[in-house]
Amino acid sequence: MSDEIRHDITRAQAEDAVRTLLRWAGDDPAREGLLDTPRRVVDAYGEWFAGYQLDPDDYLRRTFEHVGGYDGMVVLRDIQFESHCEHHMAPIIGRVHIGYLPNGKVVGISKLARVVEAYARRFQVQEKMTAQIADCIQRALQPLGVGVVAIGSHECMTTRGIHKRGVGMVTSRMLGSFQEDARTRTEFLQFIAVESGRVG
Predict the structure, then answer these.
(1) Catalytic-role residue among 15, 88, 138, 179
(2) 84, 117, 124, 126: which is the annotated catalytic residue?
(3) Does residue 170 sit in helix, strand or coil?
(4) Is 156 a catalytic residue?
(5) Is 163 among the residues known to form the active site?
(6) Which one, of 148, 150, 147, 149, lies nearest residue 177 by Cα?
(7) Is 88 a catalytic residue?
(8) Among the options 86, 138, 142, 179, which is catalytic?
(9) pLDDT tens digits for 84-132?
(10) Choosing from 97, 117, 132, 154, which is the catalytic residue?
(11) Ramachandran area for residue 100 (φ above 0: left; ψ -120 to 50: alpha; else beta)
């Protein structure tokens, strides 16, 4: 990730900030094992938060209208994601299920996964990310309905605070027919068959 996208923050300033945190934690950033840590952390941040440089709507601009009259539900299950909690900057690891009812056009399935990536690679709360994904698909494709379910394990809860492992948070957003028609919603939920205890 290039330095100019950081606006008024230079890479050197970012690396200095990491050194400050290392000192605050009680270690010496000048010791051999930590000498390259600031560079590595800044590189990792460039990867983890690449979503800020992406426009998820762009992925859905190319659609296909000739699909042989197909008008059934399109479902993409088990899209794995890695995000970070905006409250503690701790990882959120999980998967997203997406379904939509086409209204004359469909999109390549890899583009749906890219939309998830673009929103996940930002500081997030899972509820907001779930809504953003659904709203983006609704905005770009104008389908008859959209359903998004996300299941995540939050390290801010498992490695600090209450220290409870094996907990999966489930969030959903249903739009159009997925919200209004119980049969459509039930069909989607049966397709994705959310399994208890399975997160990543």
Answers:
(1) 88
(2) 126
(3) strand
(4) yes
(5) no
(6) 147
(7) yes
(8) 86
(9) 999 999 999 999 999 999 998 899 999 999 999 999 999 999 999 999 9
(10) 154
(11) beta
> Is the pLDDT assigned to residue 1 strictly greater than 50?
no
Whether 85 is catalytic is yes
* 168-177: average pLDDT: 95
Question: d(Cα 114, Cα 168) in Å, to the nearest integer?
Answer: 23
Q: What is the Cα Rg of the chain in Å?
A: 20
Which residue of the set 13, 53, 80, 87 is catalytic?
87
Is residue 140 pLDDT above 70, yes or no? yes
CA–CA separation, 51 and 98 (whole Å): 19
Is position 136 annotated as part of the catalytic site?
A: no
Q: What per-residue string of b and e applies to 144-173 under the rule 16 or more CB within 10 Å gives b?
A: bbbbbbbbbbbbbbbeeeeeeeeebeebbb
User: Could you tell me the pTM of the whole model?
Assistant: 0.89
Is 97 an active-site residue?
no
CA distance linking residue 117 with residue 49, whole number of Å: 10
Q: How confident is residue 5, by pLDDT bands cut at 50, 70 and 90?
A: low
